[in-house]
Amino acid sequence: MSTTSIESELLVSTDWVDEHRNDDNVRIVESDEDLLLYQQGHIREAVKIDWQTDLQDQTIRDYLSKDRFAQLCASKGISNDTTVVFYGDKNNWWACHAFWAFKLFGHDHCWIMDGGRRRWELDGREFVREPEPDYPRGTYAAKDPDLSIRAFRDEVLQHQAAGKSMIDVRSPSEYTGELLHMEDYPQEGALRAGHIPGAANVPWSRAVNDDGTVKSEAELEQIYLNEAGLKREGDTIIVYCRIGERSSHTWFVLKYLLGFDNVKNYDGSWTEWGNLVGVPIEKNV
Amino acid sequence: MINQTSNRKNKLEELKREFGELDVRDRLETLLEFSDELPDLPESYRARRDAGENRVHECQTPVYIWVEVADGQVEIYADVSRDAPTVRGFISLLANTLCGLAPAEVLAVKPTLLTELGLVEALGMVRMRGLHAILHRIKLKVQRAVGEVG
User: Fold this and answer.
1) What is the pLDDT of residues A82-104, one digit of tens each?
2) Global pTM?
3) In a domain, A178, yes or no
4) Which residues of B touch A (CB under 8 A)?
5) All structural domains of chain B
């Protein structure tokens, strides 16, 4: 049963994926927090792309070069015109992060499977424990990164000084500075706690239902437009979390489900800001 | 007893050697096999788990670990969701190789174990610290158990 609540070509239902997973121009990609989940069981036609071991440089804290990204895509049977549908664990955090990285590298057709692994499982659909399918090599021409969706620290500093909109999508206790790290993730802390002054706190999880699917457009408008006071047009909005993955989820919701003009993900996020010397920080404790 | 413990110690050394010979894909496959093979939590611990006892709060997915020392040997029992096969696999690997060792031998396991097993390369840096926390937690529990006995 499909529970897709938003009619958007960028958010597809599990039904749609089930019908189209064998299409030549479609590639299903699983991206998870737990790297072994894919190996334990995945959608039969899906390939695995891991945000950390595949999309990130292993030495410098950054994403791959555009040429290495092109090689990665080609090796997974993805060409420039392939429609890539992402899904994963944890309500699609990592799927949205991979989606964002693909957009950063200028990939045109990226979709998200609403509800991710959880919805697929609740539907009672099949997960197979098989090796990753080996598709014919794709043809991929690398493009320059699209920096209109990525914010770096100097820009965030200017943005903050100008009093422009920012959303901190972490849990309230991380935002207030009560916690130095995400609850249950002490390994990803920073030397200082709190938030970037001027950022509003809208935890990413407010955008999802219990089954992992995204809330209706009316509900999302209530949260982001009415409560948080964000505007669709005008100044850029910067979203951040701890390492840029949860904020990818909010970035996706604002940009593609609510149609905001300019939204950037600050992937340096709190693990950069909370360790920078001399930058302003606000606490509520 | 001495021979028995030294055999168990070799098990960990043997595992490091085996992992060293595997490529990244096979290291992950082996870790997944460990996840498959984690024994069910003994009946006598289940009520305590259900009461929320011994939950490891470093892990987002529910993880419960009991570390006990009986007759000079370490015993490890754990319950980890199948939705977290990496954590489940690592705990299973530790339980499999550390059970039966003397407390001092468990305390001597170096924090570089993950590097020695080649898991940093296989899983990426950000995933390492959570696994380190589990090893640290097990050693801490051994230390406490020994302290209580002594």
Assistant:
1) 999 999 998 999 999 999 999 99
2) 0.90
3) yes
4) 28-29, 31-32, 35, 57-60, 82-87, 89, 122-130, 132-133
5) 2-149 (3.90.1010.10)
Distances from the Cα of B63 to the Cα of A83, B42, B131, angstroms? 38, 15, 12
Is the same domain home to A78 and A205? Answer: no
Q: CB–CB of A39 and B122 under 8 A?
A: no
* Contact: A39, B28; criterion CB under 8 Å: yes
Encoding tokens for residue A203?
A: 């935890």
Q: Which residue of A has its CA nearest to B24?
A: A53
Query: Nearest Cβ partner of B86 from A36, A56, A186?
Result: A36
Domain interval for residue A165: 148-273
Name residues 45-104 of chain A within 8 A of B (Cβ): 50, 52-53, 56, 58, 89
Angstroms from A250 CA to nearest CA on chain B: 21
Interface pTM (ipTM) of the complex? 0.84
| Same domain, yes or no: A139 and A167 | no
pLDDT at B130: 82
Residue A3 lies in a domain: no
CA dihedral A89, B24, B91, A32 (to 10 degrees): -10
Distance from the B79 Cα atom to the nearest Cα atom in chain A, whole angstroms: 17
Q: Which of A123, A144, A165 is the last residue of a domain?
A: A144
- Whether residues A182 and A113 share a domain: the answer is no
The stretch A154-165 carries a mean pLDDT of 97
Looking at residue B118, its pLDDT comes to: 94
| Residue A278, CA distances (Å) to A174, A176, A265, B1, B72 in order | 20, 19, 22, 58, 52
Put simply, the answer to whether B127 touches A50 (Cβ < 8 Å) is no
CB nearest to B84's CB, from A34, A56, A58: A34
* Residues A176, A69 share a domain: no
Residue A86: which CATH number? 3.40.250.10
A266 is a domain residue: yes
Q: How far apart are CA B17 and CA A35, in angstroms?
A: 23
Residues forming a β-bridge with A83: A26
Across A111-120, A190-199, B57-66, least confident range: B57-66
Query: End of a domain among A93, A119, A144?
Result: A144
Mind telling me how many Å the CA of B24 is from chain A's nearest CA? Answer: 11
* Segment B99-134, tens digit of pLDDT: 999 999 999 999 899 999 999 889 988 888 788 888
Number of domains in chain A: 2
Helix and strand element counts for chain A (H, E): 10, 9
In this structure, the strands spanning A263-265 and A83-87 are unpaired
Q: Does A40 touch chain B (CB under 8 A)?
A: yes
